[in-house]
Each structure stands twice: as C-alpha cells, then as structure tokens.
Design a protein that fits this description.
Radius of gyration: 34 Å
Number of helices: 47
Largest sheet: 6 strands, mixed
Strand order of the largest sheet: 1-3-4-5-2-6
Structural class: mainly alpha
Strand content: under 5%
C-alpha cells in the first residue's frame, strides 16, 4: 500500500480544509497565535510532564491554531508530527479515523509488522477483501500500537488529533489501546469542541469518544481573547484597531467571530467614523446564527427576553412570562451562549448574540417582550425605557418621561444609558412638535458625545440634518459627531466645512468650530502654527460674546501650542485659561487648563505636584466624569508614575486607561503609548516595544501626528537600551523629522534628543551626536528645562568617553546621577550608573565598574524596574591573561560601533556588505575602518582578523 514519502504539514485553519491526516517533521517558522503565548507554554509543560493534553473550548475560539503552533514548535525541535483530523462524515463510518492515521504514516512504520497485523491493516484500509467476520480486532489493535511505537523509536512524536469529537467509536477504541501501550516519546494533543445540548439534555451533536480516561490527561480550556489582544489581532489582519473594544464586546473575544465582524466592516466600505453600529450582515450574521442554531424554540424565546432587558436575571425573566427560565438558561449556558452568575444574572458570551436575536425577531414579538419587561421592572428608568420600546406610535407624554429618565441615568453616572434614552426621547416625540423633536435630537447628540457613543451621535445627527433645522442646531450636532471621533480626525473635512458655513455670523458657534479646528490642525494635519491661529481666533470670538467656557478651552489649546513652539508666553496664556476656568467650573477635565497645568508639571519633572493633583481629581472623574476624562487621567498618571519610577502604579494606571479606551471604542494609540512607557519602566522591554509598535500603527491608521511621534519615541528608546542601534537610529530619526515638520521647539515635551544623540554615538557618528547636543542645549537652557540638560549631560559624558576623555566622563556621570536622584528621577539615575559602569570597565577599573553596576541594580530593585534590573545583570568579559597589555589597551580604545564593524570585516564581510548590515554608507564604513586600523596598528583585513583572533584567544 502506498504511503507519503515526503513530509506534509496541516493546512492553515480556515484557508483550506485539513487533510484527514498528515505526517511531517522538519523546521517550522510560525509565530504563536495572538494572545496564546502563555497557553502554549502551559501546553508544552503539560506534554513534557504528562504526555497527554486536551484542548477544549467553543467553536472559533482558536483551538486548532494553538495545536498548530504546538506542532510547529515540535517540528522545529526535530520531532515527528502526525496530524489526524477526522471529517464530519467520519463519525458514522467505522474505522475511518484509524484508516486515515495509518494512511498518513511513512512506509517504514509498517514494514516491521507481523503478517496478521499487516493483513488487518489492509482490511481496515479496504486494500484487500474483508475477512468473513470483519477485521481481526486484536491484530488491528496491535498493528496501530506497533505503528506508533515504530515512529517513536526513530524520533519523538507529537500526535495531534483535531476535532476529536468526530472520531468514530471503532477508531477511538483502537487509539485508546495504542496510546495505552505507547512509549513516553509519543505525546498527544487532542482538540475537542464540546457538543451543545438542548433543553432536556438531548445530545446536540454526539458525545465525543474519549481517547483516554480523564486522569491520564490535563484539560486546557482555550479562553476568549482579551480586548487588548483583540486589538492586536485586528492590526495583524489589517482591520481598524479603533473598533477593537466594540468588536471584542460583539464577539465575546471569539477570534473567528471577531474577524467576521471586522471583515464585514471592511466589506461595508463605511468609514469608521461614520459607522452607526458594527455591521451585522454577511459573514458576521452567518457565524452568529450558526452559534444560535442548537437552541430550541423555548430557549430562543427566553434568550430574546434576556436580550431585550437591560439587566437580565433568571428571576426577572421568570416574572416576565418564562416560568421555565432556569432550565432554558441552563441549556443556553451549556451551549456556550450565556453565562450565569450565582445570583442568576444573565450575560451573553458575545454581544452579537443578543443583537442577532433581536434583529431576527419581528417587531410584534419584540414589542410583547418589552411590554412584559415593563410590567415587572423594579427600576422606573428601565420601566420607561421598555414602555417606549414597546410603542411605535409617537407620544409626547411618553417622550417627556423618557427625557426625564435620561436625566436620571446621567445623574447616576450611566452616560451610555443616558445617551440611548435621550435619543429614544427624541424619536418618540411626535412629528407635530417639530421644534421640540429637534431640540431633543441636539441633546441626544451631545449626550452621545459625552458618552463617546459615535453610533448614537451619528443617528441623532442624521435625523436632525434630514429636517428643517436651524444653522445653530446643525452646528451643534456636527460638533457632537466630531467630539466622538477621538484621535481619528481624518476624513472628516466635510463636517468641518459645513460647520464653518452654518456658523457664519454667529460668534459663539464660530468660536466652537474654530476650537475643534485648532485640535484637528495639530493632530491630523501636524500644523501647530495653524492650530495656534485657530485657537487665538476662537478665544477672541468666545470672549466677545461672554462665553467663558469656550474661551478657556481655546486659551488652553493656545497655551499647549505655545509650549510646543517654545514660546515664553505659554505659561501666561495657561494662567489666563485657568482663571477663566475657575469661574466657569467645567464639568470635565479633558482639554482643560487644569489638566494641561498638570501635564506642564510632568514636562518640567515636577512629578510629585503632578501626581498629587491627578489623584485629587480621580474620585470626581471616576464618579461622574465622561469616559474620555477618565482615560486622560489614567494615561497621564501612568506617564507620571513611570517617570517617577513607581513602576507597579504606572502599569496599573496604563492598563486601566487601555481598558476604558477599548470599552469606549476610541483609538487605542494613546493608551498603547502609555503602556509602552509603563512596560519600559517596570514590565518588559519586549512588551514595551510591542505596545509602541501597536501605537505607531494605530496612530498612522488615525492620522494622529502627535501620538505617532510619541509612540516612535517610545519604540526608539527601547530599541536603543536593548542594543538595536540601527533600529533606534531609524526610528528616532523619524521622530526628529516629524517633530521638525511640526515646528516643535520645546525639548521637554518629548525627550528624543538625548536618545537620538546616544544612538548616533553608538553608531559611531560622534560628531553628529555632539552637534545635536549643541543644538538642543541652548534651547533647553533658555526655556529653563533643567532635567533636559541633565539628560544631555549623560550623553555628553559618553561622548567624552568615546573621545578618550574617560576621567572627565566619569566625573560628569557621577555628578549627573546625583542630580537625577535629587529630582526624584530614579530610573534616569540608574541609567547614568549603568553608563558609569561601562566607562569604568573601558578604563579597566573593574572594581569601580562593579560598584557602579551594583548601585544601579539597587536603584532599579527599589523601584521595581524589572527590565532595567536585567541590564545590570550583564557581566564584563573575564580578564584574559594571554592578551598582551598593549593589545588589550588597543581593543579598549575601539568604540562599540567600531568593534562591531571590525568583527564583521574580520569575518570576511566586504565594505558594501558591512554597510548594508550596519545601516551605514560605504563612505562611513571606509572612514571607520581607517580609524580601526590606526587604533589596532594593522594595515590589512588579514592583519585585522589576526589581531581580533589574537585578542579573543583563550589562555593556555
């Protein structure tokens, strides 16, 4: 019988169907599925310790992808991988899975089988006439066991059984026997999708046939993705990360459903900013309906009622007319559609489930459900909502009640419900009360803006703009839509144009429009000069009509830009805005003079002052502030605590900022930037780089110039401290170019100058590094940015060391470290001490170098700065007595960049090859080689290689 003679791997899940079974070995190179690294590590430990593992979870959660990644890892280690994937029809076909397994292994695995066993295999695979009584069960059991044992004798084997629930009973029996006798070198991963159950416990898909008793294997549940992981998944598939939070809620973290939603959005060709809601047609609807298919009619009826309720519980559904709600909800929970808490609260596992239930139900049935819920709701706000949704006839009395309920929800701090009710009040208002309906639509749009609900703001705006509204009303709803766009202000030019046109002759409205334009010009257009002009005009117009609130916001924006441009008037303008604000007492803090004052304290490294003011604001914002206020506060707190070296607090605040961002459906770029800073301080350099790269992609996606520069800075900084000099140079030069294009002057707002200077120095561009420091120093001194000058001093000390002035470098680094400590900048202090240790090492003062490194480690340990602590663990190369003092001294005179080039050339690289690998020009390589030859006193590449080999030769 023929067997495959060349390895084959399983097809990619979702692209082409899996073969029934596949055998393979060799190298593999596939990244771990998004969000599954920890699960993969756990799976590897289980397989190492027990040899058996079962991956389980609902359809689409990514079980097969995890198994594929484990197979890739095994293959990369040189193990044999056998992949068995029964098809749906195999469940009813005796021996189908076992035959597929036998057909997939190479010929050598069967060559040593005794004759009866080979005959049994031939009968199983239908390659000979069946015996009178069918196949010989004992011979066949021994044959399957022998095949697996023979494979394991050649090399370790990983057997992956995908869709194990489809294995037929006979094959399951054969595999159970074979696995029971298998040697330890055979490890097994089974992938199983539990069958859903209907009411009464009827089997919805056939119970899976177990391959082992429960005690023989660990069961690993593949969980849904978290919201942050969902954002990464969307970026990976080139889908808009801005909607990660909403897609996560809609999908419940199920990757297959999430990608279906994301692709439906992409297929709809609707701009993200204009999407009233996530698209629920096409593939997303189909996936959701397949998830609901196992539910019986009674279960669907109970689930519909739960979908209509705001806070569904078993007791509420029972009172609303579902007396058997407990049994029906239990069936839905077994099917993975909902989860039930101990108090009976019902939560759908994916937001698309209730929305699809509602969408696929006629209005009459929905109305009956809302009416039933209205009769039993114990909260008057919920009762009014249900009564309004049960009624399709406009009713002013009812609309007035809903409007009151919206005010109540707002006072309770439930901004999302308040926005929904405000729009419902407008839509319930009779057409005959045209002016009142328009007023309520404006209120609804502005309420949606406070709740960051772009979908509701767009619905209200579309309704109003289709009617005979006043220019003032049109401007207000358009401004509300703009206010829900967050960082994504590109593709909204039409709204700005119409708002400007409608605000003609209305100073108060024009001031509000100019204020939004001032924000757009700096974020989306990268033009702070134009932004300042718009802010100045906005402030003047607002003051002319006594609008202190808008004037304060405009002056705040002007002060923000003045700081960027290095204007000495920035603080005076900010003080004016703060004075107006204190009399106006705005409800929120985002874009206020108060929060900008705190950020200026952050830029100036007045960190204790900034922290205290932020913590004073936090309770108020958390209790009743808009969600964007909370996001701004937590993000700023993360930046402050990261700068202070309070690493655990920085990570906590950054995580909270991201969670709120994703929940609100806003761009995650700013929150990812904060997480990059926090991870750099106290988490992991690798995670920091990952978050920074995500922030770069999100900022580019949104057209956000401000956070693009910030996230590139965060990335370049990590690249530099982890030794990726070429990457750091490329990234930080992008920052420099972007900041230059935006006319940024003040070096305290984004401290890329010292990082780029150090990267230039590490790239052996000493003169360029010194020129950069010479440019930024006078600006920082003129503006009084003392800690910026300290950062420059640290790099200048490294320049001194590179120029051979190591004594001066040591003195300056010691002084700079002490001054950083005096400012409470402990991470910067530790970084100076690491630099000091490296300079001392170059001077061959090993005890001094060790003392400096130990001091740095103590600083980082107290701060909880885990990644920086790892840098102090590097040990200097041991002293080599075979190296002559003169040679050792010559080697120590080489910079790190020169040493990298010398090694490349010594290994045989041409100038062109070395230039390409080091991201340098050929001329730079030639000039650097000349200096290397002079320092090592060599005249050729051969002599250079000999010198390097001699310096590295072990002692005899």
């Amino acid at each position: 019988m023929p067997y495959p003679s060349t390895p084959c791997a399983p097809a990619s899940h979702g692209a082409t169907p899996y073969a029934a079974a596949a055998y393979g070995s060799g190298q593999a190179d596939r990244a771990a599925p998004v969000g599954r690294a920890e699960l993969l590590s756990r799976l590897e430990r289980v397989l190492l310790n027990r040899g058996r593992a079962l991956l389980t979870g609902p359809p689409g959660v990514g079980k097969t992808e995890v198994a594929e990644a484990a197979a890739d890892q095994a293959s990369a280690r040189g193990e044999t991988v056998v992949w068995l994937a029964p098809q749906p029809a195999d469940h009813a076909m005796p021996g189908a899975a076992a035959a597929a397994l036998i057909a997939s292994v190479p010929a050598f695995a069967l060559e040593g089988l005794p004759g009866p066993q080979r005959d049994a295999v031939a009968v199983l695979c239908r390659e000979s006439v069946a015996l009178e009584n069918g196949w010989d069960p004992i011979a066949l059991r021994l044959a399957v066991a022998g095949v697996l044992r023979t494979l394991a004798e050649r090399s370790p084997v990983l057997l992956v059984v995908d869709d194990a629930q489809r294995i037929d009973a006979d094959s399951a029996d054969l595999l159970r026997f074979a696995l029971h006798l298998a040697p330890p070198a055979l490890r097994v991963v089974a992938v199983e999708t539990p069958a859903p159950y209907a009411v009464g416990g009827a089997d919805g898909g056939g119970a899976p046939m177990p391959l082992w008793v429960a005690s023989e294997a660990d069961v690993l549940l593949v969980p849904p993705l978290q919201a942050d992981e969902m954002a990464e998944l969307l970026v990976h598939h080139r889908l808009p990360s801005r909607l990660a939070g909403r897609i996560h809620r809609a999908s419940g973290g199920n990757p297959r459903l999430a990608l279906a939603v994301g692709r439906s959005l992409a297929d709809s060709r609707t701009p993200v900013h204009h999407a009233e809601a996530l698209p629920l047609s096409g593939r997303a609807r189909d996936v959701t309906r397949r998830m609901l298919a196992p539910a019986s009619a009674p279960v669907r009826a109970t689930l519909l009622l739960a979908a209509l309720a705001l806070r569904p519980t078993t007791a509420l559904l029972r009172r609303a007319g579902r007396p058997t709600a407990e049994a029906e909800l239990a069936a839905a929970e077994r099917a993975g559609l909902i989860s039930l808490t101990e108090d009976g609260t019902v939560a759908f596992t994916a937001g698309l489930l209730p929305s699809t239930l509602v969408h696929d139900t006629c209005w009459t049935e929905r109305s009956r459900g809302h009416a039933a819920l209205a009769a039993v709701a114990d909260d008057p706000v919920e009762a009014v909502r249900h009564r309004a949704l049960a009624n399709d006839v406009p009713d002013e009395d009812l609309a007035a009640e809903v409007a009151v309920a919206a005010d109540t929800a707002r006072r309770r701090g439930n901004s999302a419900l308040a926005a929904e009710l405000a729009l419902l009040a407008a839509e319930t208002t009779p057409a005959g009360l045209g002016r009142r309906r328009l007023e309520r639509l404006v209120d609804a749009a502005e309420e949606a803006a406070r709740a960051a609900r772009a979908d509701l703001a767009m619905r209200a705006a579309a309704d109003l703009l289709a009617r005979d509204a006043t220019p003032a009303d049109r401007v207000r709803v358009r401004l509300a839509v703009l206010d829900t766009a967050g960082q994504g202000l590109t593709d909204l030019d039409e709204i700005y144009v119409h708002a400007m046109e409608d605000s003609e002759g209305e100073p108060a409205l024009r001031a509000a429009v100019q204020l939004r334009l001032a924000v757009k010009y700096v974020l989306a257009d990268g033009d702070p000069v134009r932004s300042r002009t718009a802010a100045v005009e906005s402030a003047a117009l607002a003051m002319s009509v006594g609008d202190r609130h808008t004037a304060a916001q405009a002056l705040t924006q002007q002060a923000r830009i003045d700081r960027v441009l290095g204007s000495p008037d920035a603080e005076r303008t900010l003080a004016e805005a703060r004075a107006l604000e204190m009399t106006d007492r705005p409800l929120g803090v985002r874009n206020t003079a108060q929060i900008l004052t705190i950020r200026h304290a952050l830029f100036d490294d007045r960190l204790t002052e900034a922290r205290d003011q932020l913590y004073a604001l936090l309770p108020l914002v958390e209790r009743r502030g808009p969600v964007e206020d909370a996001i701004e506060l937590f993000r700023t707190l993360a930046e402050v605590e990261a700068r202070r070296g309070q690493c655990a607090a920085a990570l906590a605040h950054a995580g909270r900022s991201l969670a709120l961002t994703l929940e609100a459906g806003l761009s995650p770029g700013p929150a990812w930037y904060a997480l990059a800073l926090a991870e750099t301080a106290g988490g992991s350099f690798a995670r920091a780089a990952g978050y920074a790269r995500r922030s770069v992609r999100a900022s580019e996606e949104e057209g956000d110039h401000v956070f693009l520069s910030r996230s590139l800075y965060a990335l370049g900084r990590v690249q530099l401290v982890t030794g990726d000099v070429a990457g750091a140079l490329e990234t930080l030069r992008r920052v420099r170019d972007g900041e230059s294009a935006q006319c940024a002057v003040d070096p305290s707002m984004l401290r890329w100058h010292e990082e780029l200077a150090e990267a230039l120095l590490a790239g052996d561009a000493l003169e360029e590094a010194q020129a950069l420091l010479a440019d930024v120093g006078p600006v920082a001194e003129r503006l009084g940015r003392s800690t910026v000058l300290l950062g420059c001093d640290r790099v200048y000390a490294l320049c001194l060391a590179a120029g051979g002035k190591t004594d001066e470098a040591v003195d300056l680094l010691v002084e700079t470290a002490d001054r950083f400590a005096g400012h409470g900048l402990v991470l910067e202090q530790g970084r100076c001490l690491i630099a000091l240790a490296r300079v001392e090492r170059r001077r061959r003062r090993r005890s001094a170098a060790q003392a400096a490194m130990q001091a740095a480690a103590a600083v980082f340990e107290r701060a909880g700065a885990v990644p920086w602590l790892g840098l102090t663990a590097e040990s200097p190369p041991p002293a080599d007595p075979a190296v002559a003092p003169a040679a050792g001294s010559a080697l120590s005179r080489l910079t790190e960049a020169e040493l990298r080039l010398a090694r490349l050339v010594g290994e045989g690289a041409s100038n062109q090859e070395a230039a390409a690998r080091l991201y340098l020009s050929v001329k730079t390589v030639e000039a650097r080689l000349t200096r290397i030859y002079q320092k090592l006193d060599v005249r050729s590449r051969a002599q250079l290689a000999t010198a390097l080999n001699g310096l590295a030769a072990p002692s005899r």
